[in-house]
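ugh ok fine here u go
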Amino acid sequence: MKIIHLSDLHIGYGETGNMFKRIAEGLVKKNDPDKDIIVITGDLVDDANHEEHFDEAKAGLKILTKAKFQVLICPGNHDYGAGAQADKDLVRVFNQHFFNQKTVTYPRVKVITDKKTKKRVAFIALDSMVEELGFFDQWGAKENWARSRPINSPN
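structure:
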């Protein structure tokens, strides 16, 4: 299994949407969707305030998913706003566009089994936005993280 890692695409800035489509087309030509996984971490779009950035990103992703590639996405700060401050409403917009749901719980864990070796690889996506939220939002995010962790002691 080959892991193809893309990061900080900032689609919507200049010609990055067209460049991503060309990259996707190249990946389809030179890689095997039955063997390879594509991971995109952080800043898929340049500015979540612009709907057209999401549309451009989805056009590139469609090239990969149409070819049957498994694509794992972990958002970054630009995916939730313009980069300086996250917007909770834009979190829901991003989640709806790329996960088909408004609420996503982190950490996200996806276990992939290599078809050839049968070895398993765990991908763990963490949400970088927690430090940008206000106190009560941070408390809620940390509370959810604590609830999602296994409890190892009887107390």
